[in-house]
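tool=predict chain=A
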Amino acid sequence: MKVVMVDPQKIKVPPVRVTSVWDPDEYEVFKASLEADGQGQAIVCVKEGDTFWLADGLHRLQEAKLKGWPKIAVAYKEGTLVDAKLRNLYMNRLRGKTKASEEVALISSLTNEDHLSLEEIERRTGLSREVVEQRLAISQALPDVQAALDQEQIPVGVAFQLSRLPQGPGQLKLLLALLQHIPPMTTDEVKRIVDESLKIIATRAQATEEPQPNIPIPTFKCRLCEQKWPINEGIGINIDHTCLGLAKDYIQQLVKKRREAKTPDQLLAEQAAETAPTTPPPP
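tool=predict ok
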């Protein structure tokens, strides 16, 4: 890389990027080091023609502008805005202090605006294919899910599981339930709920697609469970009125228990699938 002195006002910051997250104490130490020792480390840019695109060093650039420094050291390579975005992604991620929501936005920009393949992003950033695919999937989730991720109300794994649901009220209902759940659910717990919800959606879609016979099937009403059954399911037995009444009461109680016996996870899964489209999401 070449190093030159550049007017900080002439360095452009890409509109979508990942920025290292510092707590207030760390930032105060950083500013104090600039006051004592100056810039110290060159910021990293990609030079496209006469334009310097910032790849790494936003905090140093901002402080240089605030302090009115006429020139700062810039280490650069020739390239394009896309190169700057890719370099920004992997350099900031190496520090381990980045917002997952910013990674989501940047990977979405690289695929949808810059038309890079997932393979190319994987190769040029060092991110695993799974990470790239998950971040891209989250970019298709409801804005409420992305906002919760940005505010660190949910971890990235939970945001990905929510993104597996079709966009709609079901996804939002499950998000709201998770935000109110104490203690917070783990990613594995949310995955189980989403898996169950997707099964419900798929079953509904299959039932909608299957042609229904036009010929009515003869039925009868059982005197015990009071449910309707196909006529060929009936049997004839001799039973007195007392036994009939006792058996009927017991069976009615059993039917009610079976109908109401649902785990909290099953109830959440039904909520998430309740108002979802009948067409299952792509795998």
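Residues 140-206+218-283 form one domain. The chain has twelve helices and seven strands.
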